[in-house]
Write a structure and sequence with these properties.
The chain is α/β, with parallel strands linked by helices. It has 12 helices and 9 strands. Strand 3, helix 4 (105-114) and strand 4 (119-121) form a beta-alpha-beta unit. Phosphoric acid mono(formamide)ester is lined by residues 50-53, 123, 131, 260-262.
Length: 302
């Protein structure tokens, strides 16, 4: 039975804890994992731009002994109308795993349903679970625990926020989300997380209230890929949701700042916070490699 990695809510606390521990082990002992994926071929189909996800997975694949096959959708028949189902059936007869970044989450689900090999969600409009693995690893490294940690997510209720909600809920963390009205995370994801009675998940309007006493302040771009036509409107609605020195002062004195990147400096976060002493942002980006390796090893060798 293959295991796909499409959303975090398909997994439990023990599975995620094991994966994070393995990622930290791989980071601390580079080269110790050997080549567990020797002889395997792993495909990457990216229908949106990517720096971190694509490159960290390609490096992870190489470091684990496998071979990566990057496919630009415009250069394969998918871009000329071959169906998702037909593409999945054919590619999974050649490859051992397929990583996809696309728009509608249903497209990844359809691909996975027709693929005979594990499919990894490299970001959809609704979820970004690979990002959350690196986020949780970074919080664990920086704070020494996840349970009971207070995280404030300030900004758009987007794919990164949705996956963070699922991760926080599974790991019993408290998550306060501050966003303008109309920009809340996915209501079904919120409802499920709030109903699970693990950590406390709340949606607020006031970013200072969310940041108050937080251990971690997290943000993401106000305008996600594919939403560029809404940019002007959104930027004015989000003006008060910037992570800057004033907002950071509301959090605990040892609070760290996180951002999945890419950032729009001067919009959702100031350069002084991003490059300041409390920023965990570039370490967080680096952890995409280690969580990617641990995920591939888990899905392809377990
Ligand atoms: N954080 C993240 O997924 O970055 P990329 O869009 O560069 O892959
Ligand atoms: N919310 C952002 C995340 C990019 C990694 C987007 O979807 O564009």
């Amino acid at each position: 039975m293959k295991t796909d990695f499409l959303t975090l809510s398909d997994f439990d606390e023990a599975w995620i804890t094991g994966l994070l521990d393995r990622a930290i082990e791989m980071k601390n002992a580079p080269g110790s994992s050997g080549c567990p994926l020797m002889g395997k071929s792993i495909g990457l189909i990216f229908e949106k731009a990517s720096t971190r996800t694509r490159v960290s997975f390609e490096a992870a694949i190489y470091q684990l002994g496998a071979h990566s096959v990057y496919m630009n959708p415009n250069e394969i028949q998918l871009g000329r109308g071959e169906t998702v189902a037909d593409t999945a059936k054919v590619l999974s007869s050649y490859l051992d795993c397929i990583i996809i970044r696309t728009f509608a989450h249903e497209r990844v689900e359809e691909f996975a349903a027709n693929s005979s090999v594990p499919v990894i969600n490299g970001l959809t409009d609704r979820h970004h679970p690979c990002q959350t693995l690196a986020d949780l690893m970074t919080m664990l490294e920086q704070k020494g625990r996840l349970e009971g940690l207070k995280v404030a997510y300030i900004g758009d209720g987007n794919n990164v926020a949705n996956s963070l909600i699922e991760g926080a809920s599974l790991m019993k963390m408290d998550l306060s989300i501050a966003c303008p009205e109309g920009y809340e995370p996915d209501p079904l994801i919120l409802e499920k997380a709030m109903g699970s009675a693990r950590g406390e998940i709340v949606v607020l309007r006031d970013p200072r209230e969310a940041a108050g006493r937080a251990d971690v302040i997290y943000t993401d771009v106000w305008v996600s890929m594919g939403q560029e036509q809404k940019a002007g409107d959104k930027k004015s609605r989000f003006r008060n949701y910037q992570i800057n020195e004033v907002l950071l002062a509301c959090a605990k004195p040892d609070a760290i700042v996180m951002h999945c990147l890419p950032a729009h400096r001067g919009e959702e976060i100031t350069s002084s916070v991003m490059d300041g002493p409390r920023s965990a942002i570039f370490g967080q980006a680096a952890n995409r490699l280690h969580t990617g390796k641990a995920l591939l090893e888990r899905l392809l060798t377990a």
